[in-house]
Amino acid sequence: AVVSTQSTGVYGKRRCIRTYAGHSKAVRDIVFSNDGSKFLSASYDRMIKLWDTETGACISRFTTKKIPYCIQFNPDEDKQHLFVAGMSDKKIIGWDINTGEITQEYDRHLGAVNTITFIERNHSFVSTSDDKSLRVWDWDIPVDRKHIADPSMHAIPSCSLSGSGKWLACQSMDNQITIFATQKLRHNRKKVFKGHMVAGYACQTNFSPDNSYIISGDADGRCFIWDWKTTKVYKRFKAHDGVCIGCVWLPHETSKIITCGWDGKIKLWD
User: Fold this and answer.
1) What is the pTM of this model?
2) pLDDT digits over 198-216, tens only?
C-alpha cells in the first residue's frame, strides 16, 4: 500500500493540489521548513522523508529502524539543515540533512518520545514522553538541563507554543490542558483548561494567533475553545463523527479554524 500526504487549497474549489506518495504505512507527523519549500514526514514504516513541496520529489530518507513519533526542524535560519526526531525507542535523534548523518542522540527518556517544542529563542527544546515527564535540553547537548515529573502528572501526547513564546500548552491524558511558562519551565497551576475528553487520544491543542483563546478537539468529535484569561469554555461544538484529532487557527484569517477528524474529513469553520 502507498500512503500519501496531500496539499489542498483552502479557498475556491478546495481541490487537491498535489499528492506526495512514498510511505508504506500511516504518516505520523509532518513539519515544514521555515520557507515552506521543503517538509519532513515521519511514518510508521520507520522512515523519515524529506520532500520538495513544489515538485513532490522525495529528496532524502532517514531511519534508525525505529518508529519516529515526532519531528522538528531547528527553527534558526542558519540551522534549517538540522532536525530532531522523537523515537519509539525513547531516544531523540538529531540529523544533518546535507550529510545524512546523525549529529546527536538525546537518550534520557524512559518511554517513547511524543513531542518536541523549541523554546528560549530556539536555544533549547522541551520533549514529552510516555514516561509522563517533560525534559528541557540545550541544543546539541545530550544531557537534559531540567526534568519535570511528579506522581500527579500524566502522559502528554501534544504540545503547543503560544505566539508570544511565553507559554507551553500541554494536552494531558487526564482530560485537561496544563500550562507551563517557558522561562525556567514553571507549571502555572492557575491555568487549567477542562471539559473535554481526550484520555487515550493524541488530540492536538493550539493557541489563537493573539493568544486570547486555546483550542482542542476531543474523543467525542467536539471542538472546544477556552478563554485564556478566565480558563472557562468560550464555545464548544460538534465538529466530526468520531475523534476530532487536530485543530488549528487560520493564521491570516483569525476568525476561522480548521479541524480534522477520524471521519476522514478536514473542515474549515468560521
Assistant:
1) 0.93
2) 999 999 999 999 999 999 9
